[in-house]
Amino acid sequence: MADPMRIRATAKDGTVNVKVLMSHEMETGQRKDANGKIVPAHFIQNVTAAHNGKVVLSAQWGPAIAKNPFLEFNFKGGKAGDKIQVTWTDNKGDKRTDEAAIN
Amino acid sequence: MKSRLHAAVGSMLAGGALLAALSSNAAAQSAVDEIAKYRQQLQDGNPADLWEARGEDLWKRKGGPKKASLEGCDLGKGAGVVKGAYAELPKYFADADRVMDLETRLVHCMVTLQGYTLADATKRPFGAGSNRSDIEALTAFVTAESKGVTMNVALNHEKEKEAFRLGEKIFFFRGGPHDFACATCHGETGKRIRLQDLPNLTEKGGAQLAYTTWPAYRVSQGELRTFQWRLNDCFRQQRFPELKFTSEASIALTTFLARNANGAPFNAPAIKR
Fold it and tell me: Residue B54 region, left (φ>0) first, then alpha (ψ -120 to 50), else beta?
């Protein structure tokens, strides 16, 4: 089971700013270990963010994203107290969902 | 005619060299500015947060043969007090009769409170990939609770003064195959390795800037690194024998550097390239 994400969301003038920090290795599949064997690719492929159950962001990621990714985005229509839910799925089928309230 | 041509070429060459010197100076300056900008941009999403969260969980969770949490651990401000504790470390602890830095104290608590053997508690001081270090996570959590607190290493006890003197001696001690000392790189202002500025640790400003920004998340390693790691790696770079984790020498050097940072607000876990 992966470590929890850190999600911060703040509403200002009808726009919500969301900052998400994810804990993930993000292996490209291009690196070799000390024995010369390829380190298998392991990276996040899909990220979705939902505001009160409605998807506001959907992204497809690849191995070019850095380790422990940081994602920041804005969307309109949210207000303080609403729920924001972020989910990622990686290429090994691992999944993690975390939720935070908008400040 | 020929000599005039020579003179003209000569002055053009000199002009060219001057121009090159000017622009390389400007390039170095702008590179330093760009690195500072890069750090600032990363600051907001500092992955050190992830280590802090894991450290807090480790601090509160019951573990070890004695099934105890670390919440009873005395970091120098009373049992369980974490807030501001790091800004006063290293210090003398009567229960162990020695000066300890944070990592040494954490190991001490894991042994006395949780019942781990010393070998188990110090088995993984520095993490690598999926082999994660609990010490690094705990250090991230404890140091984050001192963010903004003014550094105040007191040196009241005789053993604290002794550690400071020993640390100072080690800092200036030249040895190893390269005849290096810490002071070789960190004893003068304006030195750098490639584009990395080296802080002058014999000066108040340099010592404060350096000490208050460790531990830090190293982007190039994808790991959070503690001050014990920083010293260990400096020893490796000097081709010294390996600095033993939580050894007397490592605590003495930490005492020397922490004391020199007195008066500055602590500002870590930070982020470094």
Answer: alpha
